[in-house]
Amino acid sequence: MRFQSKNARYALMTLANEMSDKCKITEPIVRKSFKVIVLYDVDKVSQNNQRLIKWIIDSSSDACKIIMTCQDESNLLDSIKSRCKIISIGVPSTREVVDILTYTSRKESFDLPTSFATTIANQSRKNLREAILALEACKANNYPFIDGQAIPLGWEEVLEELAVEILDDPAPKRLFLARGKLQKLLVEFVPPKLILQKLVELFLKGIQTGVKREVYYWHAYYDKRLPVGASALLKLEEFVAKFMSIHRKSMSHEPKIPEVPQ
């Protein structure tokens, strides 16, 4: 389960209600298997949501096992850390990152010079996910690779932040902010089609099923009309504006999420 803004609280409440129902069983039973729940990026959610996670841990220890991931444990409540066994995973070496990038390129059937893979590993500060995303962006932007080719970093985080903002509040004022972020990514040589594809993936995670078909349609529409390079800004902005309009309409018919009891 990955957390995105207001959707995090809704998802956690659903999980809490499910665990609450399981806890109504009063007779002790011997469990041969457990449900395993994986919560990603727990350090990025609010303290209120972390308290809800603490309640889930306390109430479901007999019914399931919970695995949580985070990048900075200092952002976790002490009450959560005291209930967990913390396992620190060290940063991989440059050689290990290069090996995985090389393996990825072979699986995808394209050539990756070791020198270029090493450059990606170093510039991504040996963050494996960041390195793989950078390789994806480089491949989409310019292949075969050349010396001195720009390596886009952090582009996925920018799009995740943008998607969360739009899903939370698709007001017209957001369009100006979106334009700035999209322009920044294009200037940093992130391919327009990759930006569009990632935005669609993120938007689809936060909308009702009934409007997904319409989003698929407009994705295909703009994907065929996207120019290359920075000139794609206008079309990307048009797509974002179209999605915001769709999302605003769907939100007007969306039932309100009940308040979480404190």
UniProtKB/TrEMBL annotation:
Entries under InterPro entries matching the protein? DNA_pol3_clamp-load_cplx_C, DNA_Rep/Repair_Clamp_Loader, P-loop_NTPase
Q: Name one GO molecular function term.
A: DNA binding
Transmembrane domains' residue ranges: none
Origin: domain of life: Eukaryota
Q: Which GO terms describe its biological process?
A: DNA replication
- What PANTHER family would the database entry show? OS02G0704966 PROTEIN (PTHR11669:SF25), REPLICATION FACTOR C / DNA POLYMERASE III GAMMA-TAU SUBUNIT (PTHR11669)
Task: Write the protein's name.
Answer: Replication factor C subunit 3
Source organism per entry reads Zea mays (Maize)
